């Protein structure tokens, strides 16, 4: 059967990628390189740094199921549009907070608004792209996030804070960026017609909780959820603490941000190369678990090197997460029993678990660092969790096109 390709899918991919780049990328990426400046002004401990960085993940975790289910029921365009308004407010609100508690609350609220956006960007990919383009489209979405994170990390401490007069005006700028994205989305985004989806075998839009009740029965989905807890949660904790670790080892905040930006840029390149090759060969798992091993090595060894060896270790981390993360989302979209109308619920569940990891792991890392007065035990913990993800990957079924043909 020839796969239909809808002409407007490329326009939608541009809108998805712009939101991923500037909201889920830049507006988050500016935070880690600014954390040393924020910590100095607010007299924060490492544990408090971890709580602030993890607060937005907690907000996203608590509301991702609702966000995904609402998109299944009311459509991607309307749900993302409403969430963009709140994102603009909460992004700017971060710059007005006077202390640790207020900044934590603002980050939490920003994360809650992202819960109605981030999972539904991947759902939108699944709605507009077929199996022969799915891995590549998810890879492009991932590299868009990476580009935004690169911009945020490279410009946060070295350009935006000095230019605007500190970390607070930088946060106000992020609110303005979110407002521009809302205008863009309202003007150009489309909802894929329900009759097109019905023609592919889906009879009707599911109820708000109907899709969730269906997907929670899929065992392999829970395995992927746990993998995302370990991999994505660990990767985000890694990003949050890397600049602080490098600054305390003698590097400037601007240079640390640039180095993290280089790492994320490398990850972005491989988030397209790896999934594209996976699409061509029609397999997923052989492109996931070996790269999880690479990320495990990179996370575990990063505290022991500086200079060129540090760059080499960071590239291992970047290649590993760059290939593995978009393919985990692709596996979910391809799982039997999910289908295009239930991807919002499935991805909502995924983001509950990965944001739970992203909230818990920075706090645990901060506590371990404060207790031991050493960075390496916290980063080693992340590497071990990636080995757990390798074991889980070996337990799930292959979903690639080659496996479907064999079946």
Could you please describe the fold and organization of this structure?
The chain has 407 residues and is mainly α. It has one domain: MFS general substrate transporter like domains (Growth Hormone, Chain: A, Up-down Bundle), CATH 1.20.1250. It is 81% helix and 0% strand. The chain has 17 helices and no strands. The radius of gyration is 20 Å and the shape is globular. The two termini are 16 Å apart. The relative contact order is 0.17. The model is unreliable at 199-205 (pLDDT under 50).
CATH fold-level topology: Growth Hormone, Chain: A
CATH superfamily: MFS general substrate transporter like domains
Q: Which structural class should the secondary elements be placed in? A: mainly alpha
How confident overall, as mean pLDDT? 85
In N-to-C order, the SSE pattern is HHHHHHHHHHHHHHHHH
Q: Strand tally, please?
A: 0
Question: Shape from CA axes?
Answer: globular
The level of helicity is over 70%
Low-confidence blocks of residues: 199-205
**Tally of structural domains:** 1
Q: What profile does the largest beta sheet have? A: none
The radius of gyration is 20 Å
């Amino acid at each position: 059967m020839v796969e239909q390709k809808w002409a407007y899918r490329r326009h939608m991919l541009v809108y998805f990628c712009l939101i991923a780049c500037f909201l889920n990328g830049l507006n988050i990426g500016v935070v880690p390189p600014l954390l040393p400046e924020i910590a100095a002004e607010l007299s924060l401990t490492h544990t408090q740094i971890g709580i602030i960085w993890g607060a937005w993940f907690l907000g996203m975790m608590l509301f991702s199921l609702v966000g995904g289910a609402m998109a299944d029921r009311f459509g991607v365009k309307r749900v993302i549009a409403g969430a963009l308004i709140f994102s603009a407010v909460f992004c700017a609100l971060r710059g007005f907070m006077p202390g640790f508690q207020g900044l934590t609350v603002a980050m939490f609220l920003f994360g809650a608004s992202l819960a109605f956006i981030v999972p539904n960007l991947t759902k939108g990919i699944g709605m507009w792209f077929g199996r022969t383009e799915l891995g590549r489209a998810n890879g492009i979405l991932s590299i868009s996030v990476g580009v935004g994170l690169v911009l945020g990390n490279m410009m946060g401490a070295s350009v935006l804070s000095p230019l605007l007069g500190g970390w607070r005006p930088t946060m106000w700028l992020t609110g303005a960026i979110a407002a521009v994205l809302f205008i863009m989305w309202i003007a150009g985004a489309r909802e894929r017609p329900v009759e097109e989806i019905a023609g592919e075998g889906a009879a009707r839009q599911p109820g708000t909780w109907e899709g969730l009740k269906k997907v929670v029965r899929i065992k392999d989905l829970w395995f992927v959820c746990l993998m995302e807890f370990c991999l994505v949660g660990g990767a985000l904790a890694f990003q949050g603490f890397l600049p602080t670790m490098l600054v305390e080892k003698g590097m400037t905040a601007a240079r640390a941000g640039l180095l993290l930006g280089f790492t994320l840029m490398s990850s972005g390149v491989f988030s397209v190369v790896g999934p594209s090759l996976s699409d061509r060969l029609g397999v997923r798992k052989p492109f996931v678990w070996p790269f999880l091993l690479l990320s495990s090595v990179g996370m575990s060894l990063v505290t022991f090197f500086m200079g060129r060896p540090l760059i080499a270790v960071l590239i291992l981390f970047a290649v590993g997460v760059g290939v593995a993360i978009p393919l985990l989302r692709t596996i979910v979209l391809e799982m039997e029993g999910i289908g295009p109308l239930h991807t919002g619920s499935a991805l909502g569940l995924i983001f509950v678990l990965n944001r739970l990891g992203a909230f818990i792991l920075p706090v645990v890392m901060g506590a371990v660092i404060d207790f031991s007065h050493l960075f390496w035990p916290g980063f080693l913990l992340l590497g071990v969790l990636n080995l757990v993800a390798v074991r889980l990957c070996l337990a799930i079924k292959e979903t690639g096109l080659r496996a479907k043909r064999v079946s």
